[in-house]
Design a protein that fits this description.
Elements (H helix, E strand, L loop, with lengths): L1 E14 L2 E6 L2 E7 L6 H13 L15 H4 L2 E6 L6 E3 L2 E3 L6 H18 L5 E3 L7 E15 L5 H27 L1
Parallel strand pairs: 3-4, 4-7
Antiparallel strand pairs: 1-2, 1-3, 1-8, 5-6
Helix pairs in contact: 1-3
């Protein structure tokens, strides 16, 4: 999972003439999801976005406080084009996760951010729409981060956990249907 993080004094997303979301001071984050991303990437990215220190503290020391420290807002915008590769002069997006799977992982990131912070301070655009992102970059400060690759052991553990959850869910549904 990749993010382009911009420290902003204001940001908003519109679709056509419709205002979808807006924030004051905080971070505008463009989120790219690759074919290989999973719940571990969501967890890592949520924690990093909330804790990355891009703001100065009350004494003026730079790079010392996070969104959490200053109780700021985040505006997240899905952006599949972050996972591109060039084929000559044409971008190829085959590394980007597609459709419903990407939307589910993106929504789980928003939910994780809300669970770890204040849900009302997490804003987003409109998944899959042609959006206009308006930012007033503060600094300017723009960083790119990417979740680390996972070992096969971590992937196996996640697979077992997901299988267990699915089995528990199915067992719970069967029990409910028997009553």
């Amino acid at each position: 999972m990749k993010a382009i993080i911009q420290r902003v004094s204001a940001a908003k997303v519109t679709v056509g003439e419709e205002l979808i979301s807006s924030i004051g001071r905080g971070l505008c984050v463009l989120i790219g999801i690759s074919n290989e991303d999973n719940a571990n990437d969501v967890e890592w990215m949520a924690k990093k976005l909330l804790n990355i220190r891009l703001f100065e503290d009350s004494s003026g020391k730079r790079w010392n406080q996070s969104v959490l420290d200053q109780q700021l807002e985040l505006l997240c915008v899905s952006q599949f084009t972050l996972y591109h590769r060039m084929k000559g002069n044409r971008p190829d997006f085959s590394k980007a996760m597609q459709g419903a799977d990407a939307q589910n992982l993106y929504n789980s990131l928003l939910q994780k951010l809300g669970a770890l912070y204040h849900a009302d301070r997490i804003k987003d655009g409109k998944f899959g729409a042609m959006m206009q992102v308006h930012i007033q970059n503060d600094g300017p400060v723009t960083l790119e981060i990417e979740s680390p690759p996972q070992s096969q052991q971590e992937l196996d553990k996640l697979k077992r956990s997901n299988e267990h959850k699915a089995k528990s869910k199915n067992t719970g549904n069967e029990m409910t249907n028997d009553v």
